[in-house]
Amino acid sequence: RAWLQKAVVLGHAGAQNLYGELLRPTNPVKALTLFRQAAAQGHDVALFSLGKVYYQGILGVEQSFPEGVKCFRQSVERGNVRAAFTLASIYEAGMRGVEQDLPEAFRLFLVYTTAAADPKALDDINSREVAREMGYAHYFIARRYMNGDLVEKNEEKAFEHMQQAAETGSVDAMESCGNRDKKRGDRAGALA
Prior knowledge:
- This protein is 72% helix and 0% strand.
- The protein has eleven helices and no strands.
């Protein structure tokens, strides 16, 4: 911890965010200060952390959905893949004072699935959680292509995303792939 603390004192945004995460359970006030310092420097993960603080109203901060969404948006703009998924989910549902915006949800899910395809993009995240998120995002995209919602109907792209969702464990996607095979007369594919 000594080196990490020294980097924090020197104002290193990544160190400030990491140390904030470590302090969160025992010293939430200091953690919040560190998140804010790192976020002020434009650190994408700190912006995501700060977004969660505002959105959930934790660490002694009054809940503010608009402020949380603002931080998530800034985090996405700086390339944070997790923030893209979180923000897409918020826009999809239109929850907590944020208007539903399906075109923006679609765009952000595409950002997420494209960036998250790089194993390094999410290597510090629980793989089960990533698989669940990937399945959900791919399934959302596939349904849009399948039905021609938000985008031009495209069965090839729909199936590509549906297959990727199925590969991550989405049972709804697995069923859709089986239905597609059945409709095409591919009993072997449906039964495989």
